[in-house]
Amino acid sequence: MTVAIKSVDALRNAGLVDDDPALDAVAQKYAVGITPAMLALIDPDDPDDPIARQFVPTAPELLTTPDERADPIGDLSHSPVEGIVHRYPDRVLLKAVHVCPVYCRFCFRREMVGPQGLGTLTPAELDAAIGYIAAHEEIWEVILTGGDPLVLSPRRLRAITERLALIPHVKIVRFHTRVPVVEPERIDADMIAALKASGKTTYLAVHANHPRELTEAATAAFDRMIEAGVMLISQTVLLRGVNDSVETLAALMRGFVENRIRPYYLHHPDLAPGTAHFRLGIEEGQALVSALRGRISGLCQPVYVLDIPGGHGKAPINAANVRGGDGCFTVRDWQGGEHPYPPTD
Ligand SMILES: *Cc1c(COP(=O)(O)O)cnc(C)c1O
Ligand code: SF4
């Protein structure tokens, strides 16, 4: 079994990068990490490998464009206590840890995650965060994210879910994680037990960006969770050079559905520093998403969303299929044909 890569030198030893000193500068700014499961998927002979592109650092990460920002989705403006982001009335993010099993080169929280990132909540900070949730009866859902919450040991994770289980107004506990895909062996019986807060419904959003990530080992991890009663949904970041084609997106969304994962969000890439080489235009994204409609099953349709910079939340940005007003509309079908509604014939 290969071991995880955590440095540029280890990448050089593995023959995945050259001697370019710019890469050392990149690694100084943004953490590097690739798990054995993801290393095994990389084809070292393919310079455009979509898995390598997500995890192997490159020199363009040193270029920051004027519209990029350290906190691209405005988490900090909605953080009442350390570790909590409360942007919408009925749900909060609980960020207990800022470590990940892999470090994605396009990460929207890249300035906060990693060994030099914001770290893990102290016991006192965790108490205050849970106290905040308990004190706010409008909080119906708690979303554990980070970093990646599943890097915590099952024991530490269980300590959190057991406390959430005691809060009557919290009904849903949701995890956002890359672990089932990038480190599927972590999803064992102890981990699954820790995900489940007694008396609550558990949802888990699987982050995957390319159909090759849905390996046999990942599938087995999904199965174990589903059989234990965890509801699975997907989240994908639309990325140039990784999944910016109709064929790739269709294969990925079908892969989710075949694995009993309901496609949920396709994220337009955020304005994170040094990620311009991953970004597409919104029109390009809309054209890709429109092409999925009709071509593949309705079960396979994600919602295309933009997290509005400045902390204004997510907005669906699918191309509009309806125009008009005053009771008189034009509706576009999946092949581009336009039809009046109500019909005129
Ligand atoms: C994305 C996000 C959520 C979850 O939004 P949903 O649309 O419910 O998936 C909640 N809070 C914050 C701060 C977020 O950024
Ligand atoms: S796993 Fe998530 S939080 Fe961690 S680096 Fe990747 S995108 Fe960022």
From TrEMBL:
Keyword GTP-binding tagged: no
Binding site for [4Fe-4S] cluster: C100, C104, C107
Sites bearing N6-(pyridoxal phosphate)lysine, chain numbering: K314
Pfam families for the chain: Radical_SAM (PF04055)
Cofactor(s) this protein cannot do without: pyridoxal 5'-phosphate; [4Fe-4S] cluster
PROSITE patterns in UniProt: RADICAL_SAM
Domain Radical SAM core: 86-295
InterPro entries for the chain: Aldolase_TIM (IPR013785), Lys_aminomutase-rel (IPR022447), Lys_aminomutase/Glu_NH3_mut (IPR003739), rSAM (IPR007197), rSAM_sf (IPR058240)
Keyword list, A-Z: 4Fe-4S, Iron, Iron-sulfur, Isomerase, Metal-binding, Pyridoxal phosphate, S-adenosyl-L-methionine
GO MF annotation terms: 4 iron, 4 sulfur cluster binding; isomerase activity; metal ion binding
Entry keyword annotation includes Repeat: no
Family recorded in the similarity comment: Belongs to the radical SAM superfamily. KamA family.
Protein name per UniProt: Lysine-2,3-aminomutase-like protein
